[in-house]
Amino acid sequence: MPNISVKINGIITSVREGVTILDACGTAGVDIPTLCYHPDLSLAGNCRMCLVEVEGWRTLAIACVTPVTPNMAVLTHSKKVRHARRTVLKLLLASHNANCSECERNKNCELQELAEKHNITNNEYQTSPKPESIEEVSPGIMRDNSRCILCTRCVRTCEELQSVAVIKPVGRSSSVTISTFMDRSLNDVPCTQCGQCVIRCPTGALFETSEIRPVWEAIENPDKFVVFQTAPAVRVGLAEALGLPIDRSTGQMVAAIRGLGVDRVLDTDFTADLTIIEEGHELISRLKGALVDNDESVALPMMTSCSPGWIKFIEHKYPELLPNVSTCKSPQQMFGALAKTYLAGKEVIDPASIVSVSVMPCTAKKFEKERPEMRDSGYKDVDYVLTTRELARMIDEAGIDFEKIEEEKFDRWMGDSTGAGVIFGATGGVMEAALRTAYEIVSGHEIPFDGLNVEPVRGMEGIKEAAITMPEKMATGFEFLAGVTLKVAVAHGLANAKILMDKVRAGEADYHFIEIMACPGGCLGGGGQPIPTSPEIRQKRTESIYAEDAALHFRKSHANPEIQLLYAEFLKEPLGQKSHELLHTHYIKRD
Amino acid sequence: MSEKKILIAAEQPIAGSALKKSLGMTSADVVFEVRESEIRGRGGAGFPTGIKWNLAGAASGSNKMVICNADEGEPGTFKDRYLIENYSLKLLEGMTIAGYAIGSSHGIIYLRAEYPYLIPVIEKAREDLIRENLLGENILGKDFNFDIEIRPGAGAYVCGEETSLIESLEGKRGVPRNKPPYPVNSGYLFRPTVVNNVETFAAVPHIILNGAEWFQDLGIGDCTGTKLFSISGDIENPGVYEMPMGSSIGELLEAAGAQDVQAVQVGGASGATITADELDRSLSFSDLPPGGSVIVFNSSRDMIDVLENFIEFFVHESCGQCTTCREGNVRLQDAVRLIRNGEISSMEELEPFFQLAEVMKIGSKCGLGQTSPNCFIDIVTKFIDLPAGKGGV
Amino acid sequence: MNRNPREIVSDAVARFGSGREAVIQILTEINRELSYIPEEAIVAVAGAIGVSNAEIYSVISFYSFFSTEPRGRNIIRLCTTISCQMNGSGEILKTIEAELGIKAGDTTPDGRITLETTSCIGLCDQAPAMMVNDTPHTRLTPDETRRIIAGLE
């Protein structure tokens, strides 16, 4: 498209033909307020916040959807525009339950911010009472439609990014609500609990089901031994959640959690490494079954099982493919099962007194920990799950100055991490970590990628593919893989997962191994991460993840010394009896 | 000037005569004739039909569509029902000519859910035309196929807006689309689509048979053609009247027998409310909205009741998608309640609501929200006595 | 005897196709035959079209002719928009409510009749007017209305 001239507030600007007025204003450095617009989603043009005046037009134009045309003259703060914006804001506020101080999104709310920016102090349109709170609870996500402004970002997220489509506008006119099939709870429809809607909600209509209170109570109870685990993506989101620039902050995070009064601060990265060992062996064993034993009951491609939103998705939508899912529990649940067995033994603590808390970039993890099969330790393996945002709130409440705090290290036994564990936080990371380990197990050599960086599975493309040919000379016992080309695929965002699963179901995919993460960008873009999200934000978090990987001494899961100790002293061998008892699971078909 | 019956004349041209003439012309000449007639959309918005056809004809894309908007839902409008009941052959012929003109072989009539009893009427007309080879395959022996299906609405006023109508035809909620793209380029199932009102299509055979100039001369002044009006309310002879476009509202009322007129609602709930002093105003695209609905109120009527009824209608019928319409109509309804209660007693207190009405007019996504405040502005300023002085300006 | 909702859906799909654009026609068939659209039918339509249950539910909820709540064998839709209101639709409403012992929006306990008020039905020249199922009734008087109701099965 050629460049054209448009006039924005009297100043001639050159922009690409066909871009929207909103983009053109962005180029010109003019800020346009928006609410229903989101860079990850299709254009709705519903909220009417971005109205601007175009010379010669009878009506105002919606900046987010209207394309610029040559010599278009746009006014962004004329009297008409200013009136319209203030009116739209007042209309939204009049039917919005503005209980700001009680709201999860207080001071991180786009509506509040715009109201403040436009100096809305009185509201002539408050002609009937505001709606009352109507909270609806599911394990990971809560809704309060009295705060909803009907921007439909959540609806578009659920459909376009996740192909789940369980929330929709229901009703007409002023009785429209965002609701579900037969107005059921999110718990009773095929919601994956991924929380992508939560991180795109401009207000507090959607938020995580908070577990801050019981976690404080456990910390404050002297009879409880509180063990925290922190997921890979939390360390690249926490600073952001505390209002600081996006950066990795592992040491500060450990120190801050310890500062809350927690007994042990441990790392989910440790069980990420463990997942790689177990899942890598599972893959090799499946490949052997298929390639050597010609066992037709072996399901390939094998699919990862770390992402609980993805697991719930496949249980609902593709139950016939459940045999393809790795039986490995997610790192969170492996950690939980070991905390109340292995760790209890090491620390000589009664497992009944252990309160196992995980900090996750995820809302679906709150659902996962409630699954009835997640009690292999003899107790509930994980007691509470906090999102990155909830941890930030606790740190804030405790008055810990995150910027000034001295870095500290994780506690021992389950606190060692490798770069391979860290990159679980980014799309493609599990695949890369698995390849680093599996290739070396079967060939006896490091994977032949510069700096161990398996670039083909990195990046933000929705579906990534790679093929790695094994050398002719293999380690003893793995000769059957000599010269075999291993085909892998990686998808993030459930809409992309759906594309892959449709291919697999139709028999059109010849992959051996597939990594799926429910959330766009992987866990770093998870539903429990800081709000807002955008492609740029996820890109920055990704860079932090790979920087952390590069900075770590150990880059491969099997090199983790504590993992080696765990196998030597407790598990004995991958896929062994203890592993099966504690680290593997099964799935169920859901309607 | 009095009634001038063309569309609803007792004697109608033989079915197919206009189609036959059209098929003897190039499609470009058919579009040209319609364009020259300067007929503007009879649904109310008044977009020039010839230009619409020209754009759709020139648009790239296959499977072009001709859609008839038979979703008349504007309160007080029933002219399309009357046309279908009595002249559906002309409607189908007009659609077929449109199909020939733009290069389409598929027509759809989107019939409002409230008119199920018209389905057999249209079906019969369709069968009659097929029997005479005026519809279907190789029409009149030419290399031209065109057929028409009837699709029911399901009860939503907003589906009279053409992009909502298309959404509804696609099996979705009938909410307006963002424009561009316009339906002529990307409409039903992304195909180039012409959407016209029943009356527009019904006028086309007459234009083709008698020529653009004849049609132009039917109107008064700049206006072309005749126009159907549905009159109801406090009137002796409610019904459908055909008048030259540009006739005065007074002439129409005289024809229908109005007495003791206090107010007239022209163009339906979304139109204009005028006083007895304004009866010389003209029904035309440059003055009073000539969409077709005319409702008469005599002096016994309390206009705030009327306003309340209209606003309630819009609060019920807004699609709920855009903020200004969804929330705005509710707040206007609140304002009417406050006027009734005496909680608003001066024009000053009403000022924010007039401002709201202005924002709705220029800031809503579709015609519904852009026109729904009209009745509020008109009735409050012209007819409501506020304790702190007459509202009238 | 009413047919099974799934049977109605599969017949309607056979007739109108399983494309997205057939949804309103399919729903209209169900709604007409059963007076409402039960949950089972929504699930069947969603499955046939290949969209989520929520999507079909959302569509249904938009249109005033559709209902997901059971309704009577006969549906009365009394117009209450302006011309009908001016010509006495209020009195007709009272008459029907008294006659049936229900309020607008309700269904008689025997499942015979559901009474609804509706926006303009395009019979303003013959006001007050109502639709009973697919049939229009115009220039209503209280007596005439009672007679119409008495004639409903």
Q: How does this model look, in words?
A:
The complex is a heterotrimer of chains A (591), B (393) and C (153). By secondary structure, chain A is an alpha/beta fold. Helix content of chain A is 33%, strand content 14%. Among the domains of chain A are: 3-91, Ubiquitin-like (UB roll), CATH 3.10.20.740; 95-121 and 130-208, 2-Layer Sandwich (Alpha-Beta Plaits), CATH 3.30.70.20. With 393 residues, chain B is an alpha/beta fold. Chain B folds into three domains: 17-218, NADH-ubiquinone oxidoreductase 51kDa subunit (Rossmann fold, 3-Layer(aba) Sandwich), CATH 3.40.50.11540; 226-298, Ubiquitin-like (UB roll) (Roll), CATH 3.10.20; 303-390, de novo design (two linked rop proteins). Chain B has a five-stranded mixed sheet. Chain B has a four-stranded parallel sheet with strand order 3-2-1-4, sandwiched between helices. A two-stranded antiparallel sheet of chain B has the order 10-11. In chain B, helix 4 runs parallel beside helix 5 (119-131). The model of chain B has no long low-confidence stretch (mean pLDDT 96). Chain C has a four-stranded mixed sheet, with helices on one face. Chain C folds into two domains: 5-62, no CATH class; 74-150, Glutaredoxin (3-Layer(aba) Sandwich), CATH 3.40.30. Chains in contact: A-B, A-C, B-C.
